[in-house]
């Protein structure tokens, strides 16, 4: 077989949701299934990359040839990523990381005593921005999950987090985004963009990875 367009490249990526503990039996999370990130891991391995997948809790099987590290919370995901970032040439942040976590997880199960319950939250670290700010940063690719003004917010995240590329998806539409089998990504990089149309997540993943490979060889 011919060497793939990512042959010899090292890729670190995140996928799935994070879980932020409220107490020993409860957590806050989101609807990410991991399908998009696992499709990226699978396609990248097929294209020749050496892939490490840092995964939140999902029910998917690990793609063949991929090294998988399981985490639960955003803080654990940050630690797992930063411990490995220097050893990788490409980073893709596809995980739906919780922006906030409860200030402290209760030691015991929260009891049903009050009529209302207020939970104080604190900002989580931004994994993608931390990777992009690293002195030996890899080629850094983010995702943007938006429900309106997709291009505006994607370009804002590309510039603010100093990314090499961002893959934006409108997660308000049925048949794409969270938990769907298909997606419709638009890629943005400084000075350009590419609309990937609507297709299954494997096809979207391959197109994103080939665009990254093109940029790396330039
Ligand atoms: O998992 P699936 O069901 O297949 O769904 C796929 C998906 C919709 C989750 C995926 O396509 C997607 O959009 N992933 C990013 C989800 C997200 O959290 O987007 P955001 O716009 O809130 O975050 C922007 C970027 O910052 C993302 O790359 C995210 O990984 C990163 N981030 C966000 C917060 C944080 N604390 N740390 C981060 O690294």
UniProtKB/TrEMBL annotation:
Gene Ontology terms describing biological process: coenzyme A biosynthetic process; pantothenate catabolic process
Keywords: Decarboxylase, Flavoprotein, FMN, Ligase, Lyase, Magnesium, Metal-binding, Multifunctional enzyme
GO cellular component: phosphopantothenoylcysteine decarboxylase complex
Family (UniProt): In the N-terminal section; belongs to the HFCD (homo-oligomeric flavin containing Cys decarboxylase) superfamily. In the C-terminal section; belongs to the PPC synthetase family.
Protein name: Coenzyme A biosynthesis bifunctional protein CoaBC
Pathway noted in the entry: Cofactor biosynthesis; coenzyme A biosynthesis; CoA from (R)-pantothenate: step 2/5; Cofactor biosynthesis; coenzyme A biosynthesis; CoA from (R)-pantothenate: step 3/5
Cofactor annotation comment: Binds 1 FMN per subunit.
EC number: 4.1.1.36, 6.3.2.5
């Amino acid at each position: 077989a011919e060497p793939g367009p990512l042959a010899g490249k090292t890729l670190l990526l995140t996928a799935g949701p994070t879980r932020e503990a409220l107490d020993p039996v409860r957590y806050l999370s989101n609807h990410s299934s991991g399908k998009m990130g696992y499709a990226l891991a699978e396609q990248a391995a097929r294209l020749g990359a050496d892939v490490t997948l840092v995964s939140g809790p999902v029910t998917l099987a690990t793609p063949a040839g991929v090294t998988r590290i399981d985490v639960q919370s955003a803080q654990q995901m940050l630690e797992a990523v930063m411990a490995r970032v220097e050893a990788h040439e490409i980073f893709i942040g596809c995980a739906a990381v919780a922006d906030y976590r409860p200030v402290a997880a209760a030691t015991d199960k929260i009891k049903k005593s009050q009529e209302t319950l207020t939970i104080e939250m604190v900002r989580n670290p931004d994994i993608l921005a931390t990777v992009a700010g690293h002195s030996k940063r890899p080629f850094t690719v983010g995702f943007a999950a938006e429900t309106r003004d997709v291009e505006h917010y994607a370009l804002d995240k590309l510039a603010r987090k100093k990314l090499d590329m961002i893959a934006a998806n409108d997660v308000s539409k049925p048949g794409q985004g969270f938990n769907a089998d298909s997606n419709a990504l638009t890629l943005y990089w400084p000075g350009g963009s590419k609309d990937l149309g609507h297709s299954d997540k494997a096809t979207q993943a391959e197109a994103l990875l080939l665009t990254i490979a093109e940029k790396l060889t330039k």
